């Protein structure tokens, strides 16, 4: 692995943080999965495990898909369950 790929872990980590912040601005429940995938890719680069070139992008894509599916599995409402709110935030 080249030194350039090893030193780019911070770029992937920054990309992950930006995507996680984008999830707060646009709550679409999509950006967080990509952010986690980018952070895991950064971790793999930091450890020295991630491949180079197209393999790196494939690693990011697979890790993002797995994290998105895991988030969807853990945080989706139960079958036939709708979120309802009984109180307003301004009620005392």
Question: What would you say about this model in short?
Answer:
The protein has 92 residues and is mostly helical.
- Whole-Å distance between the termini? 60 Å
From the spread of the alpha carbons, the general shape counts as elongated
The biggest sheet, with number of strands, parallel, antiparallel or mixed sense and barrel status, is: none
Total number of distinct structural domains: 1
Give the averaged pLDDT, no decimals: 85
Stretches where pLDDT is under 50 for at least 5 consecutive residues are: none
Instruction: Assign a percent range to the helix content.
Output: 55-70%
Rg over C-alpha atoms, rounded to the nearest angstrom: 17 Å
Strand content: under 5%
Topology, please?
Elements: H1 3-7, H2 9-25, H3 31-47, H4 54-75
Helix pairs in contact: 2-3, 3-4
Describe this protein with a few key phrases.
single chain; 92 residues; mainly alpha; 4 helices; 66% helix
Structure notes:
The protein has 92 residues and is mostly helical. It has 4 helices and no strands. It has one domain. The protein is 66% helix and 0% strand. Helix 2 (9-25) packs antiparallel against helix 3 (31-47) and helix 3 (31-47) crosses helix 4.
